[in-house]
Amino acid sequence: MNTKQIAYSILDLALVSKGNTLNQTFNDVLKLAQHSESFGYTRFWLAEHHNAENIGSSATSVLIGYVAEGTTTIRVGSGGVMLPNHSPLIIAEQFGTLESLYPNRIDLGLGRAPGTDRATAIAIRSDFMQAAHSFPDKLEKIQTYFSKANANSKIRATVAEGLEIPIYILGSSTDSAHLAAKKGLPYAFASHFATTHLFEAIKVYRNEFKASASLKKPYVIAGVNIIVADTDKEAERLSTSLIRMIIGIFTGNRDFVQPPTEMTDDLKEIMQHPQVHQMLKYSFIGSKAKVKAQVKTFLKQTKADELIAVTHLYDVNDRIKSYKLFAEIMNEINEIN
């Protein structure tokens, strides 16, 4: 019998729904995190994005502190900090400070993408492409700043030295899989939107993994879109907000998260468009029974150690309910295991 317990977590973008202020959005983020803590979620991650009016998680470290302050046990972190945008020294100082404020609860997930469009990436730092290529070196610097051995260096992140802050490598292709394996770090794959290379990346990571002081065997986190409601029809109705978000991404007409509507033939047709269908391949939408079956299949295929759920819905209460039902699903799957 397989006794492996699958952790379940949340990735949030502080999505701004139509009619909501940023203040209300951030209040809803905290409300969601507090409920998630009571539902048994392992971690609550926030993703760095820029120049998108429907995404509020731009100042990721600040928002992590806000969520950590309003919760007590759930791990809080970045999914991720887009490292080419930042100085490794500053990130080490920010997360060292967070870890000292909220001991044993802070995660540092690192990605190499800009989290924005090209023009904005260049506005953040003019040498973005060079910074992206030096991602492994930047990772090495952060690890150095966290080490006690760096106390004798001329350049120190004094608030970070000696702190055990878990580092996770994020990826949407095989590039970061090689790096995570080489460094012996846990690997989180963005399969909630980048579905094409999921199995190849996991295979690369597991085959090339070298044990490290922080991790003895491979650890895979897989992203999935989750929308659970009382009935399949209600979940389908709620998913219309997600579909319109995806349309906005493909058309370049990004807008605030729209209220759900009844599912139309036009929206169903859009769901079957090859690009949209591929992007939403690992989107599990429906009643508990339907989503549970889909999740079990996904876990069997990937053998993931942890699922990180993304639920893009208009109303925070619908989001909370969906995450509650998903937690029930994961607990039922773990009981069977």
UniProtKB/TrEMBL annotation:
<dbReference type="Pfam" id="PF00296">
    <property type="entry name" value="Bac_luciferase"/>
</dbReference>
<protein>
    <recommendedName>
        <fullName>Luciferase-like monooxygenase</fullName>
    </recommendedName>
</protein>
<dbReference type="InterPro" id="IPR019949">
    <property type="entry name" value="CmoO-like"/>
</dbReference>
<dbReference type="InterPro" id="IPR036661">
    <property type="entry name" value="Luciferase-like_sf"/>
</dbReference>
<dbReference type="InterPro" id="IPR011251">
    <property type="entry name" value="Luciferase-like_dom"/>
</dbReference>
<comment type="similarity">
    <text>To bacterial alkanal monooxygenase alpha and beta chains.</text>
</comment>
<feature type="domain" description="Luciferase-like">
    <location>
        <begin position="13"/>
        <end position="247"/>
    </location>
</feature>
<dbReference type="InterPro" id="IPR050766">
    <property type="entry name" value="Bact_Lucif_Oxidored"/>
</dbReference>
<dbReference type="GO" id="GO:0005829">
    <property type="term" value="C:cytosol"/>
</dbReference>
<dbReference type="GO" id="GO:0016705">
    <property type="term" value="F:oxidoreductase activity, acting on paired donors, with incorporation or reduction of molecular oxygen"/>
</dbReference>
